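Q: Convert this sequence to structure tokens.
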Amino acid sequence: MAAAALGGLRPGEVAPPAVQPPCASDEGAGRIGAGRVIARPYVIPGGGSNPIGALGYVGCGLEIMQQAYELGLNVDAVFHGTGSAGTQAGLVAAFEGAQSGIPVEGISVRAPEAPQVANVLKLANEAAALLGLSTRIEAPAVRVDDRHVGAGYGQPTPGMIEAVTLLARKEGILLDPVYSGKGMAGLIAQVREGRYRPGQSIVFVHTGGSAALFGYRSVF
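A:
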């Protein structure tokens, strides 16, 4: 109905500079695929992780702060699984922009700590700039725990299996094996290590994806 055409890239192929986002005008015209011309292309990065995409989790961060205020709850940390960086970048931008003091604990599902911190930091500052915030986010605001990646992205770990099974049996909550499963494994590990104590308030952001469990039947 909208006369829109979808173009794809082969695995490992990088879009030409002409079609890298943002492409909001005719000057962004380029070619994708077998010579097809896209007049006004918009390239969606992996995970939707660009400054505009990160705004979704800026909204999530604002909602967390609003609900915590209404409940009279002091949030000591927010945990989640961090991959393409957009989720963590949005949360960090929200909490830092509001000067909330709430730390975001990103449990990496694929990248080592240093490059993940760099990716999140860059994207968080870009999202903050898009919102017109004067806040400059610094590296200490980006926490990444890369001990739960295991053999790689989407590869099961004992901690993930334990976390998914525990939440299903104790709370009736289905985590996914790629993101939230490893995110919860990281939360459990840090509690066991004494980084967080009984009585503290921790928010876990469940990013969905539990349908992926059907692809891991041999594990569960």
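The chain is about 35% helix and 10% strand.
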